[in-house]
Amino acid sequence: MVVWTDFERTAIQDIFSKIDYAVVGQAAFSRCLIVYPWTQRYFGGFGNLYNAAAITSNPRVASHGKVIMEALEKAVKDMNNIKATYAELSALHSEKLQVDPDNFMLLGHCLTIVVASQLSKAFTPEVHAAFQKFLAVVVSSLRKQYY
Amino acid sequence: LTGTMTSLSAKDKNTVKAFWAKVAGKEEQIGCDAVSRMLTVYPQTKTYFSHWKDLRPGSAPVKKHGATVMAAVTDAVSKIDDLTGALLSLSELHAFTLRVDPANFKVLSHNLLVVLSTMFPEDFTPEVHVAVDKFLAAVALALSEKYR
């Protein structure tokens, strides 16, 4: 079981209380598609992803970014049970969507960078470490149902 | 270490150089913050610095090393057309003396991107992000040249 310090819990909950899910979700997800273009392979039905401008203004990218943030919020609301929270999503990503799990942390990196730009000085090395730990737990949970 | 996916295009190089002009004067702060984060967020990297007295964010050795690293990266920007040549002696240092696992280059690169994002939220656009990420991957590859 993952052990969270009080600092880590507070830091993570604080981040999620401060960010706008629509803004951060769109920014992080579009950044992932731009910086790591091979991730576009999973979004063939999303319309125009031809270049950075198209991705940035794509409404399906924006709404899916928000979906991702709302899914992350589930983990934040029950930090002692992240593995159970994502059991279904893990099966979905592995069996139906067939996403290479190495891609999960690519999105994680982009989310970190967007959160960092939003929180600026408040995103101290210690807060950053807590956030990275949270992402690692989320990714690990999403990997659980792959075989 | 995965190699660079593609070599740097002219557009990539110009994007990196233009962005780096904005970085000028802040190299020490950026380097210090990047190394501080690397040691704090990815504690396995501390194993290379057991000879330092103080590994806390912003400590004297961290500050000094951050400045050293950023000076080398800034130099690489100025020699972006021949990174292998520019980083030859640093590659030998990392390969034969320091023997840093090259997987860690990606770790420091990521932390550098995070710092750039906090300090230049408007300028560090997705387009700049991908160009700088590619550049840092090319630097890492050049640093790995002498390993084997």
UniProtKB/TrEMBL annotation, chain A:
Organism the protein comes from: Astatotilapia calliptera (Eastern happy)
Entry keywords, A to Z: Heme, Iron, Metal-binding, Oxygen transport, Transport
BP-aspect Gene Ontology terms: hydrogen peroxide catabolic process
SUPFAM superfamilies, alphabetized: Globin-like (SSF46458)
Protein name, entry field: Globin domain-containing protein
Source lineage: Eukaryota, Metazoa, Chordata, Craniata, Vertebrata
The family this protein is said to belong to: Belongs to the globin family.
One cellular component term from this protein's GO annotations in UniProt: blood microparticle
Domain Globin per the UniProt entry, residue ranges: 3-147
InterPro entries, sorted: Globin, Globin-like_sf, Globin/Proto, Hemoglobin_b, Hemoglobin_oxygen_transport
A Pfam family the protein falls into: Globin
GO molecular function, one term: oxygen binding
UniProtKB/TrEMBL annotation, chain B:
Keyword DNA repair: no
Record flagged with keyword Metal-binding: yes
Keywords of the record: Heme, Iron, Metal-binding, Oxygen transport, Transport
Domain of life: Eukaryota
Molecular-function annotations in GO: haptoglobin binding; heme binding; metal ion binding; organic acid binding; oxygen binding; oxygen carrier activity; peroxidase activity
Gene3D superfamilies in alphabetical order: Globins
GO biological process terms held by the UniProt record: hydrogen peroxide catabolic process
Cellular component, GO annotation: blood microparticle; haptoglobin-hemoglobin complex; hemoglobin complex
Residue intervals of the Globin domain: 7-148
Family: Belongs to the globin family.
Name of the protein in its database record: Globin domain-containing protein
Organism: Astatotilapia calliptera
